[in-house]
Q: What sequence folds into this?
C-alpha cells in the first residue's frame, strides 16, 4: 500500500517537471508587436515595445525604424520648376532632375541693360538712345527704340514769316514791274487751275504734281512797256537747302529732297507752256504748266510769282526778296483741289485727247488719229512708207506700236523723236500700257521682207530697250537712245569732239564774225564734262540777242550730227576793266543749257531773269531793232545814233 502511494507522488512530481520552467526561461526580447517571450515555454513578460515610426517621405511610406514595417504610401516629390541657375528640384527632399534652363537674355536697349526675361537678372549696361536729328516732319527720334523728344523743326517759310496765299480756282492780283521801265508796275490777273497729282510709273517712290497757271495783263503799262515775270520753285520746308541743277534736255531743274529720313535724288521741276501770247481784245496772256517730281506724299513744293523788279544779291533766298504782293501756291496745300492725272507730265493736253489708261482700243484710236494727221516732219522723213510704216496692235492688256524705218541708221532718230512725241501727245500713261518696236527690214529680190536682215530696238518706257541686229549678231540689253546713236555713228557720219568744236566755230564765225567784241578771238568753244560749251563776247548789249540766236541755230544743227551734246551757251557784253578783266558793273549776259530758255542778267539795269527766251531778249531791246538790223547786215554800230 505504502509502495502505491509513493508511486503516485512521484508521478505528480514528474508531471510538475514537464509543465513549468522551474529550471530557467529562455527569453526572446520584446519587439514592436510582442512582449518579451520565453522561447521554451512561451511565457511572456511585460508588453510589446510598439513601432517607432519614421515619417513618410517623397519616396518611402511611413516606416518603423525598428522592424521596417510600413504603413500608408510615399508622399511623392513636390517639384519646383527649373530656373535659369537651378535644375528642377524637390522642395521636400532636395532631389534634382534635368538641367538648369540657362538665362534667356533679352538684348540691352536704350534704357535697360541686357536682361534675363525669365529671372530678371541683368548684365552690362543700357546702350543709351541713338538720337536722330529732328526734321520738318518729326521731332528728334531714337533710331533704336523710336522714342521721340522735342518738336519737329520749323519750316523755312514759317521761320521767315512767309505764308501760302493762293489756292486753286481763285484769281489774284500779280503785281510786277514793266519790262522796259522797272520804275513802272503792271497788275495781272493770276489763276491756278487743274492741280493734279499722279504716280510716276517709271521711278518707284516718286509722284508728279502739276498745276496750270494763267496770267492776264490788260493795263496801259503792260501794253506800252511790256511785262517782267519772275517765276520760281521754292521748298516750303527747307528753302536754304534747295540745290537745283539745270538739265538742258527738258528744261528741267534737278534736285534732292530729304523726306522721312531718306534722300530722294531724282526730284525735278519744269515749266511747259506758251509763255506770252499775242494781245487779243486788249488782253495779253502768259500761260503754262508747272510740273514737279517729288517723293510720294511730299507736299513741300511751292510755286512762287514775285515782282520781277525785286532783285536781290547773289546768295539771297526767297524770303530775302519777297514782298507782301508775292504769290505762293503750295503743291500739296490741303486747300488745293486734287484731281486724277490727265495726259502726260510735260504738257496739258486738251480733254478730248486724253487716254484714261484703261481702254486699249481707245488708245489705238487716239494714236492712229494723231499719227495720220500730226506726225512731225522729222519722223515722217525716216519712215519706210508713210502709209504702211506705223502699225498699232491692241492686245489684252497693252498696245504695241510697230514702226518701220527706211534705213537702219534712222532707228536712233526715230527712237528719240517718237518718245518725245508720245510724251507730248499721249503722256506717260502710254508706257504703262504698251511697247514700242522700231525696226528696219531689208528686202529680198522678189520684193518681200528679209527677216534675216532685221535691226530692231524695242522699249517699254521709251528710254531703254533691247537692241538686236541680226546681220551683226548683236544684242544689247538696256540699250539707250544714245547707245543707238553710237552704234550707227559711222553710217550717220556723227562728229567726234574735235570735229564738233570745229563745226560750231566755223558756223558761228561765218554768220557772226561782225558781232564779236573785237574779232574771232572773242569766241571760245570747248569740250567739258557736260558737253560742248560756247562762250562769245559782243560789243553792245543790244547785240546779245542777235549773237545768241546765231549761235543757238548753229548749235542746234551741229548737235544733230554730233556724238556730244551742247552743254552751255553764254553770250555776254562788258567793258574792259583796268586790271585786264571785265568790268562786272557793265556786264550783260544770257546763258542757256537747253538752247531755248536761259538766265538773263543786266548789271547796269539791275535785272536778273530766269527762264528767259531769245524772243524775250529781243523784246527787251526792241528800241534798238534798227541797230540790230544794221549789225546783222555786217555794219559795225559802235557809235551812238
A:
Amino acid at each position: 500500500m505504502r509502495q502505491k502511494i509513493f508511486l503516485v507522488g512521484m508521478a505528480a512530481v514528474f508531471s510538475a517537471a514537464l509543465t513549468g520552467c522551474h529550471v530557467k526561461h529562455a527569453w526572446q526580447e520584446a519587439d514592436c508587436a510582442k512582449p518579451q517571450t520565453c522561447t521554451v515555454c512561451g511565457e511572456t513578460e511585460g508588453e510589446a515595445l510598439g513601432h517607432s515610426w519614421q515619417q513618410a517621405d517623397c519616396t518611402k511610406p511611413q516606416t518603423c525604424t525598428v522592424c521596417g514595417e510600413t504603413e500608408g504610401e510615399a508622399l511623392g516629390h513636390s517639384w519646383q520648376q527649373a530656373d535659369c541657375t537651378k535644375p528642377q528640384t524637390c522642395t521636400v527632399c532636395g532631389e534634382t532632375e534635368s538641367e538648369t534652363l540657362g538665362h534667356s537674355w533679352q538684348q540691352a536697349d536704350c534704357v535697360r541693360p541686357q536682361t534675363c526675361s525669365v529671372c530678371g537678372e541683368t548684365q552690362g549696361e543700357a546702350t543709351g538712345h541713338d538720337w536722330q536729328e529732328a526734321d520738318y516732319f518729326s521731332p528728334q527720334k531714337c533710331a533704336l527704340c523710336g522714342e521721340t523728344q522735342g518738336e519737329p523743326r520749323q519750316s523755312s517759310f514759317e521761320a521767315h514769316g512767309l505764308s501760302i496765299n493762293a489756292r486753286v480756282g481763285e484769281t489774284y492780283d500779280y503785281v510786277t514791274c514793266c519790262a522796259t521801265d522797272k520804275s513802272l508796275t503792271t497788275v495781272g490777273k493770276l489763276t491756278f487751275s487743274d492741280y493734279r497729282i499722279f504716280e510716276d510709273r517709271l521711278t518707284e517712290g516718286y509722284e508728279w504734281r502739276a498745276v496750270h497757271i494763267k496770267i492776264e495783263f490788260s493795263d496801259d503799262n503792260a501794253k506800252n512797256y511790256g511785262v517782267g515775270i519772275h517765276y520760281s520753285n521754292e521748298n516750303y520746308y527747307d528753302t536754304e537747302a534747295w540745290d537745283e541743277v539745270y538739265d538742258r534736255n527738258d528744261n528741267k531743274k534737278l534736285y534732292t529732297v530729304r523726306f522721312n529720313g531718306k534722300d530722294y535724288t531724282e526730284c525735278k521741276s519744269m515749266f511747259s507752256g506758251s509763255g506770252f501770247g499775242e494781245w487779243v481784245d486788249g488782253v495779253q496772256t502768259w500761260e503754262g504748266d508747272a510740273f514737279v517730281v517729288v517723293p510720294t506724299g511730299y507736299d513741300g513744293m511751292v510755286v512762287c510769282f514775285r515782282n520781277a523788279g525785286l532783285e536781290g544779291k547773289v546768295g539771297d533766298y526767297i524770303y530775302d526778296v519777297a514782298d507782301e504782293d508775292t504769290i505762293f501756291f503750295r503743291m500739296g496745300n490741303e486747300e488745293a483741289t486734287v484731281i486724277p492725272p490727265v495726259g502726260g507730265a510735260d504738257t496739258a493736253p486738251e480733254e478730248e485727247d486724253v487716254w484714261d489708261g484703261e481702254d486699249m482700243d481707245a488708245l489705238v484710236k487716239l494714236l492712229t488719229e494723231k499719227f495720220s494727221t500730226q506726225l512731225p516732219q522729222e519722223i515722217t522723213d525716216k519712215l519706210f512708207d508713210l502709209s504702211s510704216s506705223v502699225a498699232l496692235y491692241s492686245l489684252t492688256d497693252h498696245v504695241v506700236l510697230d514702226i518701220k524705218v527706211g534705213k537702219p541708221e534712222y532707228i536712233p532718230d526715230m527712237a528719240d523723236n517718237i518718245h518725245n512725241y508720245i510724251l507730248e501727245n499721249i503722256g506717260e500713261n502710254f508706257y504703262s500700257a504698251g511697247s514700242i518696236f522700231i525696226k528696219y527690214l531689208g528686202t529680198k529680190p522678189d520684193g518681200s521682207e528679209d527677216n534675216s536682215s532685221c535691226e530692231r530696238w524695242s522699249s517699254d518706257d521709251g528710254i531703254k530697250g533691247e537692241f538686236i541686229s541680226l546681220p551683226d549678231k548683236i544684242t544689247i540689253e538696256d540699250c539707250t537712245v544714245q547707245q543707238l546713236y553710237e552704234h550707227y555713228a559711222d553710217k550717220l557720219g556723227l562728229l567726234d569732239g574735235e570735229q564738233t568744236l570745229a563745226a560750231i566755230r566755223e558756223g558761228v564765225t561765218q554768220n557772226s564774225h561782225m558781232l564779236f567784241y573785237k574779232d574771232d578771238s572773242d569766241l571760245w568753244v570747248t569740250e567739258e564734262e557736260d558737253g560742248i560749251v560756247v562762250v562769245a563776247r559782243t560789243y553792245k548789249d543790244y547785240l546779245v540777242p542777235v549773237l545768241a540766236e546765231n549761235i543757238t541755230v548753229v548749235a542746234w544743227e551741229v548737235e544733230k550730227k554730233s556724238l556730244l551734246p551742247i552743254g552751255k551757251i553764254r553770250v555776254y557784253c562788258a567793258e574792259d576793266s583796268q586790271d585786264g578783266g571785265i568790268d562786272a558793273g557793265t556786264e550783260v549776259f544770257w546763258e542757256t543749257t537747253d538752247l531755248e530758255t536761259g538766265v538773263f542778267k543786266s548789271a547796269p539795269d539791275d535785272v536778273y531773269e530766269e527762264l528767259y527766251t531769245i524772243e524775250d531778249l529781243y523784246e527787251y531791246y526792241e528800241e534798238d531793232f534798227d541797230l540790230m538790223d544794221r549789225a546783222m547786215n555786217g555794219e559795225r554800230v559802235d557809235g551812238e545814233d
Residues 2-19 form the longest helix (18 residues). Residues 336-354 have pLDDT under 50 and may be disordered.
